[in-house]
Amino acid sequence: MNDVLKVMTNHRSIRSYTNEPVNDEQLNAIMDAVQAAPTSINGQHVTVICVKDPVKKKKIAELVGNQAWVDQAPVFLLFCADFYRAKIAAELNGEELVITDSVESIIVGASDVGIAMSNAITAAESMGLGIVPIGGARRNPQELIELLDIPEYVFPVAGLVVGHPADPSALKPRLPREAVYHHEAYNRDLRGLIEKYDKQMADYMRERTGGQESRNWSQTVSSFYKQIYYPKVRPMLDKQGFDYK
Amino acid sequence: MNDVLKVMTNHRSIRSYTNEPVNDEQLNAIMDAVQAAPTSINGQHVTVICVKDPVKKKKIAELVGNQAWVDQAPVFLLFCADFYRAKIAAELNGEELVITDSVESIIVGASDVGIAMSNAITAAESMGLGIVPIGGARRNPQELIELLDIPEYVFPVAGLVVGHPADPSALKPRLPREAVYHHEAYNRDLRGLIEKYDKQMADYMRERTGGQESRNWSQTVSSFYKQIYYPKVRPMLDKQGFDYK
Question: How far is CA A95 from CA A91, B199, B214, in A?
Answer without folding.
Answer: 6, 19, 19
